[in-house]
Amino acid sequence: MREYIGLFFKGIGIGAANVIPGVSGGTIALITGVFEKLIHSIKSFDLTAIKLLFTGKFKAFAQHTNLFFLIAVFSGAIISIVSLARVLEYLFAHHEVYVWAFFFGLILASVYFVGKTVNKWNVSIILSFVIGTAIAVIIAYLNSATENEAFYYLFLCGIVAVCSMILPGLSGSFVLVLMGNYELVMIKAVNDARVNVLLPVILGAAFGLLAFSHFLSWLYKKFKDQTIAILTGFILGSLSILWPWKEMIYKTNTDIVQKYRPIMPESFNKEVILAIVLVIIGIASIWIVEKIAEKKP
Questions:
Q1: DSSP per residue over 195-253, as a string?
Q2: By CB atoms within 10 Å of each CB, which of 53, 184, 262, 297 scores lowest?
């Protein structure tokens, strides 16, 4: 039971990250040590799982899919998204720089702690790291596409968004902004219950989650160090989005999602000092999590 309570709280962290623009739940999953198990568990929903389910072998189905692990993590994530969304909305409205500063420190520290899990750094590992960083930076500065309601494009949005949500360093909501469909999918379709928009997105997300989990699982088995290196690069590249001081260059009509350009603070004042303190607190938070994890048998 204690293990599942811990997983539940890790799920809360993953859910909270998905609420933050530019932060990936996959990053928190990687930091807290559940990423690989999460990918393998999602991948286990295969023909064998379907057969076990429909033949009434529920215990075997639960063991095959690691069901209770998934329930613990996803229930925490869902509760977190629902409960923290309003809190974070308030904090962003009134203390935006400080929120970004804390998460900047959090993600900055995770670059080291995730990167140190690579067994041996060599040329191919360093190259993977550089490629991952470059991809994340390029994505951060891409121009947004225009809104598109075509079924195939909405299906593709579902695939790309869900892959981004579980991939460390890439934000699913940010990718939807780049594809031009964030407002259509996450605001208009949800608020107006537009099934013609939501259905292809959900189908694409389900397909993408299963297919991508198989791909990531295969990568982990065959090229584990290279995979961790490229994911570490993704996390490092995402820091450009999380920089506390920024200038808005994109905003939806409903003012919910914004795209920014990093800038330097105008002067060294109390705000800057407090932001630096929060960056340090963010770094310390990851260090504490790592130390606690090391003490576990």
A1: HHHHHHHHHHHHHHHHHHHHHHHHHHHHSHHHHHHHHHHHHHHTHHHH-SSEEEEEE-T
A2: 297
What single-letter amino acid sits at 128? S
pLDDT at 256: 46
pLDDT at position 80:
80
What is Dmax (Cα atoms) for the chain? 67
Please give the single-letter amino acid code of residue 25.
Answer: G
* CA gap 188, 168 in Å, rounded: 27
Concatenated DSSP letters of the chain: -HHHHHHHHHHHHHHHHHHSTT--HHHHHHHTT-HHHHHHHHHT-SHHHHHHHHTT-HHHHHHHHTHHHHHHHHHHHHHHHHHHHHHHHHHHHHHHHHHHHHHHHHHHHHHHHHHTT-S---HHHHHHHHHHHHHHHHHHTPPP------HHHHHHHHHHHHHHHHSTT--HHHHHHHTT-HIIIIIIIHHHT-HHHHHHHHHHHHHHHHHHHHHHHHHHHHSHHHHHHHHHHHHHHTHHHH-SSEEEEEE-TTS--EEEEE---SS--HHHHHHHHHHHHHHHHHHHHHHHHHH--
Other beta carbons within 10 Å of 215 = 12
231-282 tens-digit pLDDT: 888 888 878 777 888 776 655 554 444 556 778 888 888 989 999 999 999 8
Q: How many CA atoms lie within 13 A of 268 on its CB side?
A: 1
